[in-house]
Fold each of these.
Amino acid sequence: MKVIASSLRKGNVVEMDGKLYVVLKAENFHPGKGTPTTSVDMRRISDGVKTTERWKTTEQVEKATVDEREWDFLYDDGEGYHFMNPETFDQVAATPDVVGDAAAYLEPGMKVFLQTFEGAPIALELPQKMVVEISETEPVVKGQTASSSYKPAMTTIGVRVMVPPHIDVGTKIVINTADNTYVERAKS
């Protein structure tokens, strides 16, 4: 199926020269003069080689049809990250480069969107927001205003995040999994 280059998003799969690539990052550039372009960082599915392509935003790109559905994360071992289809109970193992930065968030029993092509996992999408607990952070400085300053904090899953000064160790917070940013204090 052909789509325009500017509509490509992270996790999409495109076909070029008979090979499949998963989109890692897509950015549209609109210069003052000249043609707007789309720059796409991709990983070739067959061997994991990363590449960057640049297209005019209106150029047609072949988007591959992949199976995207909800899977349950089971566990990870030396062979990879294992997922189960909750309807058919089929299991697949994804390699560490398919999982990438999402590995820190994975917990047994968690539901994720897994994209597969001919039965092989090619991309993973986490829930947009998740609740995590703060394991370490700096103490509050008296007189510091909450409006503009954030402080670094480490979560129990090993992800660094910037939080407002009133957040202490042991506090549960909601973070955006796409860019590891603080959203709000978790409602208990």
Amino acid sequence: MLIRLLRRALFPASLLTALAVVAMASCSLWVRIEAAGHVYDEESVPAAPVAIVLGAEVYPGGTPSPFLAARLDIARRLLQAGKVRAILVSGDHSRWDYDEPGAMQVYLVARGVPAQQVVLDYAGFDTYDSCARAKRIFGVSKAIVVTQSYHIDRAVALCRNQGIKATGVGDDSVRIYRDPWAHSMFRERGAIVKAAADALSHRDPVYLGRHEPGIDEALALS
């Protein structure tokens, strides 16, 4: 009797676990298929008008974390090499005391990037929102997405899902920060499921707003 009760109790949990594993595997496969053939190293990535740098942690005082700084450095080198003509920095500025895009702009300009070639998206609250807003608000149709390598397939998949002809460059230099890297890779498993759900639902970004001419103006000046 006790064994039967235990089996009945454990069956729903086992079923939910199995469904979660299947969902994660299916979403991971979708991301890999969407990104296949579109992820490059920095030297071989084809040119595009815009680099989209996805936001990451900014420390108090406005210093980009090593993960974010590595992304910005790639975008800066792509601009210097003539592979892009403008940089769209997209991140979280939901609080007045936390400004990812502003910190990204300051970092780039301090390292020689002309201010007029850096365009800020203050409502890139997650990867989906950054990609959707790049297309729908800033009019980006072709871009190189820049982030870490554990994130790049998802970022490229979501941007392509939004109608951007996106390629991607992933950074591995911050792998030396072992604990944050491992934590980010673990979080990516759940993020992949959310990405597939967002792509399937075609939801609007958290904040949409009107068309922003910043990219058009930056490209016209370059």
